[in-house]
Design brief:
Layout (H helix, E strand, L loop, with lengths): L4 E6 L15 E6 L2 E6 L2 E5 L4 H13 L7 E5 L5 H9 L5 E5 L3 H8 L15 E4 L3 H10 L3 E6 L14 H4 L1 H9 L1 E11 L4 H9 L3 E8 L8 E8 L2
Parallel strand pairs: 5-6, 5-8, 6-7, 8-9
Antiparallel strand pairs: 1-2, 2-3, 3-4, 9-11, 10-11
Length: 233
Amino acid sequence: MIARELLATANIPAAIDLAGDTEGALQLYRRGDDFMITIGNNELMNSRVYGSEQALAELSCAAIKNISSPHILIGGYGMGFTLRSALDALGEDAHIIIAELIPDIIEWAKGPMKLLTRSALDDNRVSLRIADVRELIIQGKEGARYDAILLDVDNGPDGLTKADNDSLYSESGLMTAKSALNSGGILAIWSAHPSSKFTKRLKQCGFETHEHIVRARTNGKGACHTIWIAKKH
């Protein structure tokens, strides 16, 4: 068996509470061609498991396929699979903003993990912001509106990695996101678990809401994850 090699560590910004576990630092490991990002004993990401992240982009891009020159905001870079899939699905007239809070994640993406996404961050359609996605949503509300907002910054509405992210999923947070969308735009949210309560909240906020259950792996296996596609009329 190939041994796991530690490539890098990163301090966690004080504002972030990763699943309530702030012990230690983020760690990037490699085993053969596979990469893992962990904190303590918890594996947060694995480059072999990206089917639902890919689905987040594919479902979102399908929902706005008739919009020309789409303007998209993606909250959370992760390992870049959502970004890569969005770029593959969209035309050359698209503009994608990536919001990532942890600079080291981007350094790793441009360094040892660059080939995972075929250098997605170098695509001229992509703009990178080291920022809280909530700030960019609020800016969108004030002017530069989006055709799609994709959120993969937590384990879902009931599994926060950043305590302040609760405001993303509250009624007021959803209404702010709705205000930042153009007519016909969509809010897409990834979650490790389903939530009928959250589905109801999206509908109460006036979104046309569809809940999709997708597999964690691209081969149709692995855990079931949930993706909400919520459309603004």
